[in-house]
Amino acid sequence: MKSILKIGSFLMIFALALLNNSCSDDGADGKNGIDGATGTANVIYSEWLSMSTSQNVTIDGTSGKAYDFAAPQITADVMAKGVVLSYLKFDETNIFPTPYTSIAGGFINTITSIPAVGNLKLFRFRHDAGGTVSIGSGVEVRYVIIPGGVAAKRSVYENMSYKEVCAALHIPE
């Protein structure tokens, strides 16, 4: 019986010694600090893309200029369950979400994005239906895909600025 107690005592002292040696008070060996926001490893974003060649098109009875970009990451699953956001970069400090409405060529017009499987289309139209206005060659577009597995409502991101979306989704600007 005494040998069992001695073995038990030895094991307890050994276990406490191991536990004491594996823990440190300085935090150097373990996690230290406040937990950050959950990452979004599944979010996909494109590089900044230069304007492609435009085509005159009519969409839902509205004439305008269309620019097509190959976007193989926009899949049927993304279209069914995810979110595709797009941004226009006019220069380093002027980045806007689509749809983007402005006065260009003396007329109110809008640039909107239309995602489809494998493609992102930008469409610019004048509100007065009086012709078309091209998007300047210096303007770039970027799309951000939030797959259906990431729990968020589209409106949450639509109401954020580009910088806020980048911060929330850990996307380099």
What does this structure look like?
- The chain has 173 residues and is of the alpha+beta class.
- The chain has one domain.
- It is built from four helices and ten strands; from the N terminus they run αββββαββββββαα.
- It has helices spanning 2-22, 76-81, 154-158, 162-169, and strands at residues 44-45, 49-50, 54-59, 62-71, 83-91, 94-97, 100-104, 107-116, 118-126, 140-146.
- A hairpin with a 2-residue loop joins strand 5 (83-91) and strand 6.
- It is globular, with a radius of gyration of 27 Å.
Tell me, rounded to a whole number, the average pLDDT.
79
Estimated share of beta-strand residues = 35-45%
* Total beta strands: 10
Alpha carbon gap, first and last residue: 70 Å
Order of helices and strands: HEEEEHEEEEEEHH
**SS content category:** alpha+beta
Q: What radius of gyration results from the CA coordinates? A: 27 Å
Low-confidence stretches: 1-24
Number of domains: 1
Please count the helical segments: 4
What kind of sheet is the major sheet? 5 strands, antiparallel
Question: What coarse outline follows from CA principal-axis ratios?
Answer: globular
Q: Helical percent range?
A: 10-25%
